[in-house]
TrEMBL record:
GO CC terms: mitochondrion
Gene Ontology annotations of biological process type: isocitrate metabolic process; tricarboxylic acid cycle
InterPro entries: Isocitrate_DH_NAD, IsoPropMal-DH-like_dom
Ranges for domain Isopropylmalate dehydrogenase-like: 17-337
Domain of life: Eukaryota
Location, primary (coarse class): mitochondrion
Keyword Cell inner membrane belongs to the record: no
Official protein name in the record: Isopropylmalate dehydrogenase-like domain-containing protein
Organism: Zophobas morio
Length: 349
């Protein structure tokens, strides 16, 4: 099997260059926290910050930078225009870099108040086609057609990625989520492909579930799920459901992979415009994204140092922002994480 997202070779001195796309809303403040934490953790990463405004050249430059560095950390870029000709730059980046799979590991943090406890679900989402093909048109007045694109090649890659992930991480079951009873051709192909790939992994159980039943099961009996695979839009919705079950938009991070590039970002991909600049955004989702990025680059010790400091802060000391029912400011949480990094027994340097 081909390795997904080739890992860039470190620059002189073992440092990596990483593209930072702060995006809109709370993105810039969260990136500021990542930089602070990296400074105290001594993480060997240099950020190339690319602001994406409204110019097309901004997007071009961002893509050039990611292609050069191989890895990016990203906030959500707001699409202000509702005109059909203005495409979401978030989608454009994923499509242009062929980041065909999104991985969201939804694992409960003990000690963080949540609707469900001890959840450990991995959502693996097709990330570049399906309902996000952006092929919509008005065929005649008052009739809109919107195309959902499912291909054998991408369904195959996602399914293979999921089973390989399950195998490498000691997971027991993969569930394909679909609506093949209605969308017989598109979801039918996605489902059939995953069944075919499943045959190569007899040690991993495979089953499937219709998306509507899946939503009910997730809310009532979420512990039955292990690894899940699905097309793009179901992935977006299911990701938000599971994040909501275990702590909301501010807690988890997501990973986007292609054969050549990787992008790390908060799991629910929200802009958080309404809470920007108020010092209340939960910094954990973006910090987790930065931990995942360090692991991807092979800086395992730095990743663990930061991860442990996060866990100590939110699980043991229970320093929580308002979204988790706490009263701490974003900066209180970050300060505590930095204190915990500085007090850690084992440091990578
Ligand atoms: P979208 O970008 O899809 O419009 P929003 O930005 O409105 O979504 O975010 C959805 C919800 O999640 C909002 O209530 C927002 O306040 C909340 N949210 C998103 N990110 C965070 C965060 N880091 N900390 C706390 N709340 C967050
Ligand atoms: Mg918003």
């Amino acid at each position: 099997i081909k390795k997904v997202a080739a890992i860039p070779v470190a620059l002189y001195g073992g440092r990596h260059a990483v593209t930072m796309l702060p995006g809109g809303g709370i993105g810039p403040e969260l990136m500021g926290y990542v930089r602070e934490v990296f400074k105290y953790a001594g993480a060997p990463v240099d950020f190339e910050v690319v602001e994406i405004g409204d110019e097309n050249t901004d997007l071009e430059y961002a893509l050039t930078s990611i292609k050069r560095n191989g890895v990016a950390i990203k906030g959500n870029i707001e699409t202000k225009s509702e005109s059909a000709s203005v495409v979401s730059r978030n989608v454009a980046i994923r499509n242009e870099l062929d980041l065909f799979v999104n991985v969201l590991h939804c694992k409960s943090y003990p000690g963080v108040p949540a609707r469900q406890k001890d959840i450990d679900i991995v959502i693996i989402r097709q990330n570049t086609e399906g309902e996000y093909a952006m092929l919509e048109h008005e065929s005649v007045d008052g009739v809109i057609e919107s195309m959902k694109v499912v291909t054998t090649s991408n369904s195959d890659r996602v399914a293979r990625f999921a089973f390989e992930y399950a195998k490498k991480n000691g997971r027991k079951k993969v569930t394909t989520i679909h609506k093949a009873n209605i969308m017989k051709l598109s979801d039918g192909l996605f489902l059939e492909t995953s069944k075919r790939i499943a045959k190569d992994y007899p040690e991993i159980e495979h089953n499937d579930m219709i998306i509507d039943n899946c939503c009910m099961q997730l809310v009532s009996k979420p512990h039955q799920f292990d690894v899940m695979i699905m097309t793009n839009l179901y992935g977006s919705i299911v990701s938000n459901v599971v994040c909501g079950l275990i702590g909301g938009a501010g807690l988890l991070s997501g990973k986007n992979y292609g054969d050549h590039y990787a992008i790390f970002e908060p799991g629910t991909r929200n802009t958080g415009t309404a809470i920007a600049g108020k010092n209340i955004a939960n910094p954990i989702a973006m910090l987790s994204a930065s931990v995942a990025m360090l692991k991807h680059l092979g800086h395992t010790q730095h990743a663990e140092l930061i991860q442990r400091a996060i866990e100590k802060t939110i699980c043991e000391e229970k320093i929580h922002t308002p979204d988790l029912g706490g009263t701490a400011k974003s900066t209180d949480v970050v300060q505590r994480i930095i204190d915990n990094i500085l007090q850690a027994d084992i440091r990578p340097w």
